[in-house]
Fold these 3 entries.
Entry 1:
Amino acid sequence: MSSQNLDQNIPLPPGKFGLPLIGETINFLTDQDFALKRYQKYGSIFKTNILGKPTAVMIGSEANKFILQSHFDHFSWAKGWPATFQELLGKSLFLQDGEEHKKNRKLLMPSFHGQALINYFETMESIIKSYLNKWEKQQNFTWFSELKQMTFEIASVLLLGSERGDKIDYLSNLFTDLSNGLFTIPLKIPGTKYSKAIRGRDLLLQHLEQEIIKRKENPSNDALSLLVQTQDEDGNSLSINEIKVQALLMLFAGHETTTSMLTSLCLVLAQHPDILDQAKKEQEKLQNTDIITLEQIKNMTYLDQVLKEVERLYPPVAGGFRGVVKPFTFNGYYVPQGWQILYSIQLTHQNSEIFTNPKTFDPQRFNKEREEHRKTEYSLVGFGGGSRFCLGYAFAQMEMKIFAALLIRNYHWNLEQGQDLSLNRIPTLHPNSGLKVKEFQPLPK
């Protein structure tokens, strides 16, 4: 599997490019089993044409390691994601490569680790409690939209220093419009999803610019203030425009995927009373006071397993795009420079050669005795891998554990019967019904 001395006579991956211009894009966006059908037919690498580019889809832990580690320099993030991402999210860390990415990741790192996380804990818990109290009063609500608002508020308050209140709802709605435009046809005609996404982006950037100017004058403890003040070893700092796009990315990364995972968590806890019962027993052992602490969070080992299994079976994003900047061969097939690749998170996570009974929700596969994800490198990649592993992972883990602990310790709920629980992957995984809840009530003390 080397890119050296490539023989152009090596065959391209099997598969079809589809129709002129649009290729197989419509099937890709509408068929949940697009990659699975072709994997079953062609194996771990196949070709297609989606989102305007010839594409090699690569599947399995070996492919993940090839892309994320051993042949990392053959691929570009900036040239991989669709043009809609670049237009809507700007040239943020997500779409940077090489030294530029390394430098800016280093500037952003302090906002998501160490003392910053400790500082976030109390506010994060307070916001989560306010939503749980709100749902207790409502009793009936739709979880996906509520969790999206909650995680957006957490990201907005902690990362940008926004004030809690009505403006959060307004900004959250703008962000929903932006997210809905990421995987859609980029028609800038008034009334289209993409037109609304552009408007949402522009209004969010205006808001962010105002917030950055405020932080320059009066810094606080939020991540935006850290960004405004941070300099690298050469004394370089980010410009207002650079901070704006990085802040937009922090908002996006800080709530979209977490919303998806928390929605899936709530779904599986309702569907698997035995797992909920075991999670409750763990919380009862830890709960010597009503207060949740960082020390308790570290000791929630069963909840860790549950969250890993949510990541495995319900990954928020089905795969990752990269642009091919150096040609390569993989499993006997040649992929030219200028193509894009898509590595499949979903199909790797459901590979029976890695995970026992992969369609079954089984947190015990991650216990110390089994540790199925450690048998093969890069087999659990919901948060990426290698040097581009998710910067906000610790932030997301803390948020999800605080939420899960408060929910499991204090509440009982039922799912509304007859709702559509089939899963929609756009923009991130969620039930088509949004997960309708009824009888959300406090547990008897």
Entry 2:
Amino acid sequence: MVHAYIGLGSNLNNPIEQLDRAIDTLRQHEDLHHVRVSSIYGSKPVGPQDQPDYVNAVASFETSLAPLDLLDLLQSIEQAQRRVRERHWGPRTLDLDLLLYGQETLQLPRLVVPHAFMLERGFVIKPLHDLAPNLCLANGNKVHEQLQQLDTSDLVFIKEE
């Protein structure tokens, strides 16, 4: 079993409901165990600003799925919720990103782990902090140390999961 962390995000079609449905699906999946979810936060979009604000959370779980099988599962959940992605860094109904897969570092055509931009994104590190403040990241910082280096002033607490 490997401990994995994923980021969840949405800014279309009732974003909180999109995250709630994805979380329910994760909790019911037979290959994911001990699913925990951070609080949900609102944030300004990365990239084009002519779109609604996002809601974001992080989930953690134990899994026996291989990294690409886990990626396939996450993408199937996105598709089941009729993922819409109009443009790069544009609005979307649901985005599930594999952030961490144990301590593994992967550079595959379809998957990079740890997630390439997670260390610079407060909307990832703040919810990750809710779950694992002392987790050591690839840059050697603990999550709580990384959080202190980020501007999270645009994050808005929405609800506790």
Entry 3:
Amino acid sequence: MAASVHDQAHLAGLFDAGDVTRLFTATAEIRAMLVIEGALAKVQGKRGIIPELSAQAIHRASLELQIDPGGLAAATAQNGVCVPALVAAFREAMQAPEHAQYMHWGATSQDIIDTGLMLRLRQASGLIDASLEQTLTALAALAGAHADTPMAGRTYGQQAAPTSFGAVVASWGWPLLEARRAFAALEFPVSLSGAAGTGSALGPDPAVLRGDLAEALKLSDPGHSWHTDRSPVLRIAEAAMQAITAFGTMGEDLIALAQTEVGEVTLGGAGASSTMPQKQNPVAPSALVAIARLCQGLHGVLHGAAMHRFQRDGAAWFTEWMALPQIVMGAAAAAQHGHKLAEGMQPNPARMAAHLQGDGLLHAEALSFALAAQMPRPEAQLETKRLAAEVRETGQSLGALAMARYPDLPASLFMPAAQLGSAPQEARAFAAQVRGA
């Protein structure tokens, strides 16, 4: 069994996070930290905090030198962070001690790690958002095409009242639109606060230097130290969780709609069994639900890790390292599956119609309101309950029993297409919203 399903060769397709996976490799993390060190030296050189010539040398070396992450392991195990070993390896590889001595001037390990994390999270968020956009485009097309396709609405797993397949698709899509808005509103702040968050070794004006670094890296300037304020991380995780939860709901619905007894949806690329030739397993929807279940638990862990003691908390920080990447990669993998499902699924209107034509009990609510025009509402509800009980006892349809007893009722009362309410409008409104976005 894999330690992480996202980086195992045989599970790469099942939990495929695409290019986001590479952003959470050791190589990508080290590369991001080197970018930070080079940019920091460059802005410090311009401010005269370190010699300009040394700043240029460090910046150039940060772009050219390769540091083996494996070579940092022993020191990282001892120090709890990789930055001391990274700085030592970089200085040695530069072979220019007169310049290398100014690398990492006044910064602390958390500045480099957190800022490097933000660079990678910015990239990851852009990739996830692109997948969300593709998914929404496919869902909008499906919702628009089937805005008027009747199917049974279900509450508590039971048939409730008619809806349309387009409206069901829209119900999956609306939260994804909200997730895209959450991603669009994210900020990725630079961290530059020094050993205890005071910036005391960063020169005469640490705030100005922090702004310089933010501008150089195209990150935001938080205006304060956030070593122990994990709000930026939590907001990014929350956007990811909005997408993950929406996809999980979509997965739950598709598992039920594709099951043998229902068969109202056919999934593109369904999975096969090792021994049962007839099986068409809902693999992708199952992956969506599994990702959601795991990440919901990790989201709680991440919130617990947001409570840092004093000016830095190793245990809380380490916990964040373990939980956050899985949430981000989970969102990326869910978006990949969601996109493929949205493009490949096909509704089965004939099966939907067959389920609607059964005993007619899903028209009970409409019948109770129609009878309320002839009698007080409480009596109409009681009469509908009596008719529903008779349906279960005799096997006759609700429509046949009701029309026999109340021949003045409109025939359209028991026609699903006439009882869709606002479902078609909901589907079309969603499709229009996506097109407008």
